[in-house]
Design brief:
Layout: H1 4-12, H2 21-32, H3 34-39, E1 40-45, E2 50-55, H4 58-65, H5 68-75, E3 79-84, H6 92-97, H7 108-118, H8 124-143
Parallel strand pairs: 2-3
Antiparallel strand pairs: 1-2
Length: 147
């Protein structure tokens, strides 16, 4: 019996350099450490095999560019390039609890309104996600002090 991982790698290998993104993502946290992994994440491979890594902002991209050779060696990849871009959020609750720049928390009334508006959504996970989005929007609108 053939292992599923081997079969999957062989099938993905038909897609050129992108086939290696799974391996890069799996190796990333150990290769760069927790702090960098929270602020930068492998996004894709270019046709020439360069790993494009999204960084939280241009400051992170610049700093990591200074360590590109070291990171490239740890990942055993041809080249690595850091650019500002979206990175996955690890823990939504931890992000929500971050004091600096954190969005305003919804009031109980805003949470109740969001729950009412989403009550007809059958899928529980989707309902929770939409409800949080509405709560956030209501809290931001009520807390908007821009002129």
């Amino acid at each position: 019996m053939e292992r599923l991982g081997d079969l999957l790698r062989r099938e993905l290998g038909r897609h050129g350099p992108q086939a290696g993104i799974g391996d890069a993502v799996a190796a990333w946290p150990e290769a760069v450490g927790a702090e960098i992994a929270r602020n930068a994440w492998p996004a894709r491979f270019t046709r020439d095999g360069t790993l494009i890594v999204h960084a939280r902002d241009s400051v992170w991209a610049f700093e990591l560019t200074q360590r590109a050779a070291e990171i490239r060696e740890r990942l055993s990849t041809k080249a690595v390039k850091f650019v500002p871009g979206p990175i996955p959020e690890r823990d939504a609750e931890a992000v929500r609890a971050t004091p600096q720049g954190s969005p305003p928390l919804p009031t109980p009334e805003q949470a109740a309104q969001a729950a009412e508006w989403t009550s007809q959504i059958a899928d529980e996970d989707l309902r929770r996600i939409v409800q949080r989005a509405i709560e956030s929007g209501l809290a931001r609108a009520a807390n908007d002090r821009s002129f």
